[in-house]
Amino acid sequence: MAQSSSNSDAAAAATTLRLYEFSFLTVKETTMKLKQSLIVAAIAVSALPAAVLAQQIHMATNWLPPVHVLNAQTYQRWTADVAKASSGALKFEVHSNGSLVPAKSTMQGIRDNVAVVGIVYPGYTPAEFPLNNVINDLVFVSDDDIAAGFAYTELAMNHPKLQAEWKKNGGVFAGGYSVPVYNFLCTKPIRKFEDAKGLKIRIAGGAHAEWVKALGAVPVSVPSTDIYTGLERGSIDCTLSDPSMLDKGAKLWEVAKSVTLLPMGVVVGANYVYNPEFWKGLKPADRRILLDTMARATARAQVGYHVSVEAALEGSRKRGLELVTPNAEMKARLAAFNKQFIENLSKNSMESRKVADPGDLIKAYLDLETKWKGLLKDVDRTSEDAVFKVLNDNLYSKLDANKFGL
What we know:
Number of domains: 3
Distance between the termini: 30 Å
Low-confidence stretches: 1-54
Order of helices and strands: HHHEHEHEHHHEEEHEHEEEHHEHHH
CATH superfamily of the largest domain: Bacterial extracellular solute-binding protein, family 7
Oligomer: single chain
């Protein structure tokens, strides 16, 4: 991050403090030179604005590349928004690509004050975030990514169990995200239920694996970096992924032949997790600035995802990929699977994640997702201002900067 001109002036003033080498000066001369230098430095520093003297650049960590929507929108542009809103009093330096703290160590880095804020994906550390990962299991049933992201944000901000889990791990949760709804991206089109039988489908795990098995297909665990070559060489027939991967990153539209537009869940995580001491040490007015700017950045990211998916699907269609609308049987099979999945999730979570009955948490999330779907029903999802207004009016503006996160 470029240094300001005021910082340059301060640096110039500091250079006057250099001492002459003792080998060329007598002790008396050295003492006189030092006094003169200190006087000059004191005059220069006293002329600087008080805001410059108090200014500190805070470290922010993001394990994604700067061009990724969850960095470009929620960190690169957000830090600029914060600096502008605070007239330069609050400044953050974003370290991308995990250069400051690796993805799996982000929560530890925030807790240890290596960074004061960062993006955290609870799925990377399931033992530390069992309840957050119950929600990430649950969102397999989600068919609306923006509603899912906002529901998770509200839940993690307000539900005592999730608040306690974030506090235990040394963080203040202040905003969440959802990736776009997952679809089948395939070299062999899935138009109806029978088409999936025997296909090798790359999955991320959890409910995805059970759903693929229910289709009679074979779930395959493949790193995201190997999806392209897997589709190209035929070691996998499909990937269960978000459609933005068609024209971003791996550019899967170069090897895929079809997209089955069956909504098969999302993945949620935390856009903003703060070091508790940093958050506590802020003035209420500064916390208000952060809350306001995070609301806009969170909305901006979800809109960015939405627009990205629309562009990827339209571009895929133009390239000759088949955009498949699933038939009624596939929709019914998925609905039945989701119903059974929700019914079994509490028991399965208690056994696999060793948590107390999370039934109240599951119900709270589902109720919130329904609420946000209603709030977003007639909203232009390509408009940052429109989506921001819904999120801010119904959540962020209601948070008390004197109490939230303390």
